[in-house]
Amino acid sequence: MRELRLPGAAPLRSAAPPRAAERPGSLRRWLAPGIGVKRWLTLFILCTALGAVGFLHFTWTGPLHPLATRWILTLNSLMDPGVLPLHAIGITVTALALLGALWSVVMLNRQLLSSTGTAPARAMDLLYEQRTLTRGPKVVALGGGTGLSRLLTGLRDSTQNTTAIVAISDDGGSSGRLRRSLDMIAPGDLTDCYAALSDSPVMARLMLHRFERGDGIQGHTFGNLMLATLSEEEGGLGEAMQDIHEVLRIRGRVYPATARPATLCARLSDGRTIQGESQFKTLVGYAHIEQVSLDPPDLPALDAALDAIRDADVIVLGPGSLYTSIIPALLVPAITEALCAASAPIVYVASLMTEPGETTGLTLEDHVDAITRHLGRTPEHVLVNSTVPSPDVMDRYHAEGAEFLTLNGASRALRGRVHTLPLIHPDLARHDPAALVQAILGLIPRRLLPVDVG
Description:
By secondary structure, this protein is an alpha/beta fold. It contains 18 helices and 12 strands.
């Protein structure tokens, strides 16, 4: 069990989930490592100073010597040498001239950008994405539900090389209705992930808008309906991926685990088999889940998703429900093979609580064993939250039959893979995206991280 800290970083702190409007100030972004601005700013200042010295040499040794002498005498007469030394007057004038030159360059850039219809703030965002985020680590995240979308919210401000591979077996709510009506994959978790990675705050908000009225559309989200429309237009969501990424301006990529509809099935400890993800919550007080599978089992994966796994710097499982979000994304045969062959470390973000029915009575080690049993590879790292939620939150979860997951009873082998960190908001009992991303990036070997240059 190790205390993890990003090299050179302060200890992790809980912070509010980052929102689109809560981005670094424009000045900090201009000076951020890797943008390529500081080098040119430094060159501008050096050239300006060298030019000033050259001009001084020319005026003092050339035909403008009388004019330079008159300028110095006039400037000295305007300012009291008793207040400022004579050389300080020259430094002050030089500094003011340099600031004026910098201001003129800034205003020139602003004018040029405005003439092309690009807002300066947007131009800075584009530059930041192209020069910094595009060089960020390659992170592949698998799962579904709100846990995965919260992780993606944190990743979008750290790297543009994020690939989400999303479970598509949900058969309840809006997703279930669309699946049954159109014979398509479940769009709900995809919608959440697209909204989390969208670079358009307006589209992100619209994607999550749920209709509260209207015959036929009540209960559906705009994003689910949009994905259903694209699926109909293109003959499946697999063919519509590029259009979706362009329309929503996705900072990264989001792919379904498979582009074909599938039903999640579970074999129980009493020998029974249940079909349909919505049935998993009915297991409270009955037999527990031993194995889950997809029907049909021979589902194809998207080539782009497999390529992302092969090229990844780190692979993240979760956070999310063990049997209905994380493991279903691992059950497509080609994805299973790619994950087992991947050279990148696999990080499992452990659940905060057990889930009534689905994981009642399971320990942390049981969660890891279930992933190993279905995937054929044990995660190299397990991130476990160390912050205890507030008593009110704990009481609420206990009333629902959920238990807080801890290292109690964990084997020595598991403890060697565990990193305990403060990863949640104590009053919410949900993963803090910023703390979670910092922890994950801290597990990437330093040789794979990009070198920051000015």
